[in-house]
Amino acid sequence: MTKKLKIAVLLLPLLLGSLFASAQCSYKNTAFKSGEHLSYNLYFNWKFVWAKVGTASFSTVRSVYNGTPAYRGSLITGGNGKLEKMFVLRDTLLCYNTLDLQPLYYRKGAREGKRYNVDEVFYSYPNGKCSVRQHRQHSNGKHSWKTATYDDCVYDMMSIFMRARSFNPTGWKKGHDINFPMVDGKKRYPAKLRYEGKQNVKTDSGHTYRCLKLAYMENDNGKGYEKVVDFFVTDDENHIPVRLDMHLRFGSAKAYLTNMRGIKYPVTSIVK
After folding, report:
1. How far apart are CA 162 and CA 30, in angstroms?
2. Residues 6+ apart with CB under 8 A from 167
């Protein structure tokens, strides 16, 4: 073996590692297409009674962000005016991801009681690294900014949700974890998705679906992981979230699918 060939062989793993590092923030979308729209009813547990408190919709369309072809994902929630004294839910979430699901931009506007905060994350990828500019507009009008660059990829709430729909669960066993770092408008913290098996779920659309149960857990205070949301996604190629169980600091909430349109594949997970 010549000296040059030996050097090439020794360097190949490093070169491949470098290529992977620069591309690892991308992920092939296999689950949805432009024009998908999902609608939900929202319920809140109030003194052991589940009351309908509003609706939510999630839509994905083909768009452009700063000249880059992208998917724009938006989640909009609206509360029931009669019940907002016990549960205020007026969140608007927006993200832009490249067509291969690389995060580009994230925004969350959240109203909690009389407070209204806005989080933003701006992504860029210089020299195979992941750079983020984080912005938070506080309820008192104050603005805080932070910039950081990482060797690994980071995600926001919306981008990891869109990416997770394309995960292949074949071979997963209960307790299987997928770990990843999360960012919001202020900080970075560890999070994970945990597979918790299969379950049939009846929705407000009138159908019952065979679902995969995924628990989203985060450790944003350094004191250990806490479960935030349980996702029930259809056990077919679409991985449509048909029910969400939200574990809130002030109670519990649920979202049940009412309607879907613009779905990429036939929904083969319908039980009845």
Report:
1. 10
2. 178, 193, 239
Distance CA 231, CA 115 (A): 27
Q: How far apart are CA 253 and CA 51, in angstroms?
A: 9
11/24 Cα distance (integer angstroms): 20
- Side chain identity, residue 169: P
Average pLDDT over residues 230-236: 96
| Residue 162 pLDDT level (bands cut at 50, 70, 90) | very high
Average pLDDT of the segment spanning 177-186:
95
In what helix (H) or strand (E) does residue 232 lie, and over which residues does it extend?
strand 226-234
**Spatial contact of 243 and 28, defined as CB atoms under 8 Å apart:** no
Listed in order, strand segments (DSSP E) in 90-142 are 92-98, 103-112, 115-124, 130-137
In the DSSP assignment, the letter for residue 83 is G
Q: What is the mean pLDDT of the chain?
A: 87
The answer to whether 185 touches 119, Cβ cutoff 8 Å, is: yes
Query: What's the rounded Cα separation, in Å, for the pair 186 and 134?
Result: 6
DSSP for 141-196, written as a single string: S-EEEEEEEESS--B-HHHHHHHHTT---TT--TT-EEEEEEE-SS-EEEEEEEEE
Separation CA 65–CA 160 (nearest Å): 18
pLDDT (tens digit per residue) in 191-211: 999 999 999 999 999 999 999
- The answer to whether residue 68 scores a pLDDT higher than 60 is yes
Say what the pLDDT of residue 98 is. 97
Instruction: Give the other-Cβ count within 10 Å of 192's Cβ.
Output: 15
Greatest alpha-carbon span in the chain? 79
Percentage of the chain surpassing pLDDT 70?
85
Q: Which residues of 26-48 are buried (b: 16+ CB within 10 A; e: fewer)?
A: bbebebbeeebebbbbbbbeeee
